[in-house]
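Action item from last week, closing it out:
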Amino acid sequence: VEGAVAEDEGGVSGILRKLVVPAAALLVLGAVGLGAGLTRYGIFFHRAFRGVDTARMRAQLVEARVALQRAEYPGDRAALDAATRAVAADPESPEAAALHANVVAVLELRHGAPAPALEQARRAADQLDADDKGKLPALEARLAVSLASGPGAASAAQETALEQAAARSAPDADILALLAYAALARGDASRASALFARLEAVKPGTPRAAFGAALALAARRDPGAKAAFEKVLVVAPGHLPTRLELATLAESAGDL
């Protein structure tokens, strides 16, 4: 009987040992995965487990960048939607977070951005500052959020830091536009004009570059502003913001 009991106990303990080893391995694997989840840059299998879709993220960024070139509300809103989808496809992408913040700033300046989008951009800028301080996406997001925060929040020092970091890479039309809008907000129309000229060289023939250049001339009360706005209508005949600016100029000149 004792032998049978011993044999049975050995069988049970053997089965338990076989179960314990795989279970321990699963616990270790889970702990590693959890540790990766606590950092913004998890290891590859963790990103795959979470379903990060880099291809979709990049496609949405392209869509957002194209929409921004229209420089009017439907385009800006479409850019925000695409940038939001890009962040959802890869929440850990600094590029997606930075462009989303950039789009939010453009919307806030021209039309008013949704409050949840503003808050998302602020959180992303803080996270990028914590993880990638001084790098291009962090600098872009921080300037964008500052610009969206109201008059005087963005500084020339922030612009300089972003411009110097961007100079180490291929020209980025969206960063050039952000820098130009920031200069306009500070009242530096001459710098804005130079930046919009660089934007035109990078992305020629877009309403954004032409409209921005006209805005900079209007800010300087340059007599050539009217002709510059009319040039925008050659590129985009139905461009509503340009028509509104022309109406404002006409009213100021007593032509209405």
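Closing note: The chain has 13 helices and no strands.
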